[in-house]
Structures are given as structure tokens and as C-alpha cells.
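Z., the sequence and structure:
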Amino acid sequence: MAEFIKKIISSSLAVILVLVAFASCSDRQGTETGALEGSVDSTEPALTTPDIYDAKGYRKDRLPEGIDYGGQTVDVLYWNNAKNVEYDAQDNGDIINSAIFRRNLRVSDRLGVNFNWIGEKGDYGQRNEFNALIAADLAGSGTYDVISAYSTTIAMAATQGYATDLIGHNDVLSFDMPWWASDLTDMATINGKLYFATGDISTNYLLRMYGTFFNKQLVTDYGLASPYDLVERNDWTVDRFVELASAFTGEGADPVYGLVHDAITVEALFYGSDLKFVEKDEKDVPYLSDSWKGNRAQDLMDKVSGLCKSSSVKNDSSADEKLFSEGSSLFIIYSLDLAMNYLQNGGVDFGIVPIPKFDASQKDYRTTLNYKYSLYMISKGTDIPDIAATTLEALASESYRSVTPDLYETCMKIRYVTDATSQTMIDHIRDGVSFEIGRTFTHMFNYDTYRTIRKALSGTAESGWQSAAASYEKVFRKNLDDLLAAFGS
């Protein structure tokens, strides 16, 4: 809880200071007196807090000083068709590339290791081939130590028995630290086993979080309520989203739409409404949830599919980014790197808010990620598992201190986002990141956990949501049993 409070305080301070000084990133050191509360006898030395922060106020990791692996090579198999640079970067003057280059150099020097980066295609379309490489390596020389790829690719590797249980290395892997995505590690720990992780170590985790981008000029021209104001008064909900998008007809010689999408990104509205296929009970055992097939889910599907079937919405995977960047749509739901990769030239004055809540009674905003984010695992075939685990921890903690500040504070919040309110919204989006078993392990559910909701939300489903859910319930229960069996239940 203390780390969480520090995160909220420091994120707020960063927004205030960002235009006048280099802002600090989340989980920085707060004000500390170094003494116990209450009166202190002045004749006795004051008790000081442990030195757990570095000179810049960032949390230190718990790795011991003086580690030296004597030039040990760490072989890292990674997907070389990731959306954003993450692994073997060059010091080429680009802020993010250079930050990753320096991170790798610092970790190499700190631990006495040398990285051997082995890039292969590992996106969704190459998930089977990538895993075949891992299987062949396990059957042969066991070259790979650390492996990272597209989310589903690594989840598949985990359930096929290719990964080392990370819980067995919790003496060096500190998953309670702010550089790890705690919601992921909590969700993916099944039967006491955890086979992958992510967090600040991955730029594609940091940049592939979904947000709602809106055209500020269209809000003004049409006299619409500002999504910023709706967030501020806890009224940024699915109803308000649908209402605003419906103000545009998508007709005429130069049509303007309420929403452009690619039938994939609308999936974020399901998870943004705090709906789940799988939850965990009080004993941390996964079970098939009721929420995905209940009235709340049906209401969501009716509202969003009705919008998506209207002329207010354009479903075009080949042009959704282009249409929004040209000012032809009020909304686009997209990962945060849209600002960096498509909107950096200033063609549209945009703002960013979280994915809307289902209604005002929902406590928190929920952020899901585009599937194109990276997960990290340690190969079951490595002969240096302890070194691999230490290297992962060092990479993650160094990323938190040196890559994330450049990526979020310098790039996203100053270079690519034009107003302080969107800077605050980026913090809301990051704070709301959540993961769900049925989505992360969608391959164990024959990919139907995402296919069903995408069809239903985009208005292309052949039947009503609750009818479709009833037809899948028995199958999903069997799929979940198979997943638990893969974790040794």
C-alpha cells in the first residue's frame, strides 16, 4: 500500500512540474523525515528510514552489491517484429533507443554479463513457429536463457511446459516492486506457479495500453461535453461515449464519424466495463466468472453494437488511424503509441482519456492492452537459471529508473501530448492496467474469448450475447480445466 500511495503522489507532482522541469516518474521517493512519528528524545539518535531510494528518488532493487558473473553470455531470444523498439537498441540519438542502449550497457557492467540478442519473428502470425524454435532448442543444446515475445506466443510457451517457474527465483525477482506489472503476476500465478512477467522492462507494455483518443476541435465545433470534464466529474461512461459518438452521421462528401475502429480495439470496452471471463476465489483458485454472461455484459453489447451498426461508426482496419489523424472522427480507441507513431506531426489537436467505465458506480477505470505487448520468461532449458533471473530483475529495475522516465515523461508527456490534462490521463490509464486469465491465455479457450466479444461489440454477431454465452459456457469450463491441468492442478 505504501508503494501505491507513493505512486499516486509522485504521478500528480509530475503533471504539475512537467512544463517547467524534467518530471519524475511514478514510485519516486516522497518526503521523509527519517524519524519516527511523535516526540523523540533529543539525547538519542533519530531512527532513519532504510536507504531504499537512489539519488534521484527512484526505488532501488534488492540485488546485492558486487555481483560479477565474469563475462557470462546471456542468450536472449526475442521477437524482432515488435511494434516498438525494446531489446537490442542502438545509441542513435533517438530518445527511446538511446535509453534502452544505456540500460543494456549498465546491466551488463553491473552484473558482468554479455547479451547475445537473437531476433526472430514472434508476432501472432508466427506464434507456432516461434514456439517450435523453443521446442527445438529444449530438445537440443538449450541455447536460450531469456525469451520474450508477443503476449500470446509466450502464454502458449508457458502452457506447453517451455518456461521455468519464476516463483522459484523470488529471492531475486521482486514482484512487489513497482517495475513489475503486479496485476499480471497476480493473475498469471496459478497453482502457485508463475511462468512469465512484464512491466517497465517492456516498452511494448508501456506503449500498448489502450486509451480513448478524441478530437478536441470537433468537441468545440459541435458544442459537445469535453471527455476531460466527464472524467473529472465521474461521468465518463459507456452511455456518454455512445451519446457523443452518435452526434456524427458519417454522411456527406466529407463524412465525419463518431468512432473509427478495426473491430479489435472495441474489445477494450468489455474489459473497461470490468467484465471478466475468469476470476479467482478467496483461495486464489481460478473459476469461470458470471460477469461475462450477465445483464451488465448484455447491456454493454446492446449499446455498443447498436452504435457500431450505425452510420456514426466506420470499421476500417486499413484506415482507422489515417481517418482520425486527418480529423475525420471524434474518437478512436487505440494504444498510447498512436500519439508517437501516427499523430506526432500535429495534424489533429487531440486529447486522451481512459476507456470509459460501464457506469458511474464502477469504482476504477480499467485499462487493457493491445495483444502486441511483450511477456518475458526464463527458458526451461537454460543452464544458468539464477543468472537469467538476476538479469531479468536488473533489466526491469534499470528500465524503471532510466527508460520509463524518458519514454513517459520526456516523450509521451512532453513531445507527443499537447496539454497537461492528457498528461494526467496517461497516469490514470497506467494506474488502471488490468489483466484477465481468459484473455491472456486465450489460446487455451480456442481464441473464442476475444472472438466472441469482438463480434458482439462490433455488431457482427449472429445471435444475442446471452444466447451466445450460454452456448460457450460448457466449452469454456472444459477449457479452464485444461488450463489448470497445464499448471499442474
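The chain has two domains: 72-206+371-416, 210-368+434-486. The chain is about 40% helix and 10% strand.

Let me know what you think.
H.
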